Amino acid sequence: MKIFLTGATGFIGTHLAGDLASRGHDLVCLVRRSSNIRELENIGAEPVMGDVQDRRSLLPGMSGCDALVHLAAATSFWEHDSEIYSRVNTEGTRNVMECALESNIPHVIHMSTLHVYGRPARKPFDEQSMVGPVRFSEYARTKYEAERIAWGLHIKKGLPLVVCCPGIVLGARSAGNGTSFVERLLDTIRVHRAFLTAVHTFVHVRDVVEAVSRILSRPFPDGQRYFIAGECLSIRRLAAMIETSSSTRLSQGGVSGSAARIAGTAFAAVTDILGKSPFRGLSRDYLATLREGVSADGGRAARELGITYTPIAQAISDELQSMESRGHLADKRRARRYPMMLEIVYKAQGDDTSMPGYVINISESGMFLITRKPYAKGRYISANLSGKNPGEFFMARGRVVRATPGGVAIDFTHRDRSIRDLVRKLGKRPSSPATA
Predict the structure, then answer these.
(1) pTM: predicted TM-score of the whole model, two decimal places
(2) Where do the domains of the chain lie?
(3) Which residues are CB-contacts of 54 (< 8 A; sequence separation ≥ 6)?
(4) Most exposed of 16, 245, 256, 287 (fewest Cβ within 10 Å)?
């Protein structure tokens, strides 16, 4: 089968492209000029330059295709140009679906989201439930409009359509851009603790991929909608599962729900004035989505498509492992700082020569350095650390995040793997470590 795929370089798209290629399908993937297409080339996919916002760029790649899977979307909770949601999610979907009709593609799958339902009266809701009256983000609102366009073309013009609505998708990622729910939770656990009882629906990315593959491998269930929804979990439960999987205890401090809303409003106001992305991604839309939650029943997909949902504990483990492989997880853990006294040589940004100093405590994510002169917050410092054993040598670079009269606290931006080994050795000493 020859399949036209939009959004192939995204999180779900990367997994789906690999799966479809492994099943022997020929892939034609719509990509922008700024996209990294290395993985697509490695699996033998044909990249076609274009954009869902440009209708003329879609038709050449669709010619002769047996199926279309539309994944491309603006999925963030804040954009400097808020019109991007309408241009990509709504009008982009209109372009893709109209071109699919013009190209006579017999199988069209549109990837939507459970968030288009807002707050339905029934919990958990299913495919037969009525949507709620309000959506809690521009992403959800424009995806809702996109679905209406697709279904309108299905009813009025015979577009052969299946819509998939996944929950919050977790799993291994080839890159970290801060949009993963797990990454956001690790970054801002104190804010998330204001919504511990909020229930969300999660699913492993492999289950979303499996659902699409099964739809394409059997008689096409034209006109059907499927929720791809694995488990409904509270944020409290999800945080506990992350702690178990990572063997790390997350920060126990928190803020109230009202404080989180006030903070979100303040962040949003500053964001609107300065035109910069919100602090830690805590936009108004994200906090509203976080507070409301979404509880859906994915039983229909399991029954009719024959998929067996992967435990979310496995999805969390897979995602944490991918973060670990990219060196991101250690920076997001609650750092355990170990006391030590190690003479080093360091050089600060702007200094002409290196200077001696002392590390008095260290963790996998940073260290406290006694320096001969003060350094301002934000200054970059590189350090060479010599171990006690012959041949031991460690190198680290980082940014000053706190300055005192006696020295500076540094967050690592780069560190040798040897530093991780050093910290783990310190952690095995009998004395109790101090907690940063």
Answers:
(1) 0.75
(2) 2-330, 335-435
(3) 95
(4) 256
Q: Which residues of 57-94 are buried (b: 16+ CB within 10 A; e: fewer)?
A: bbeebbeebebbbbbbbbbbbbbeeeebbbbbbbbbbb
Q: Could you give the maximum distance between any two Cα atoms of the chain, in Å?
A: 77
CATH code for the structural domain at 335-435: 2.40.10.220
Assign a CATH topology to domain 2-330.
Answer: Rossmann fold (3.40.50)
CA distance 173 to 164: 21
Q: Picking from 51-55, 178-182, 233-237, 307-311, which range would have the lowest pLDDT averaged per residue?
A: 178-182
How does strand 199-204 pair with strand 168-170?
parallel
pLDDT in tens, 173-223: 876 666 789 888 887 776 777 888 999 999 999 999 999 999 999 999 999
Phi, psi at residue 341, to the nearest 5°?
-140, 100
Return d(Cα 131, Cα 122) in angstroms, integer: 10
CA 315/CA 169 separation, integer angstroms: 9
- Alpha-carbon separation of residue 100 from 223, 288, 321 (angstroms): 15, 35, 38
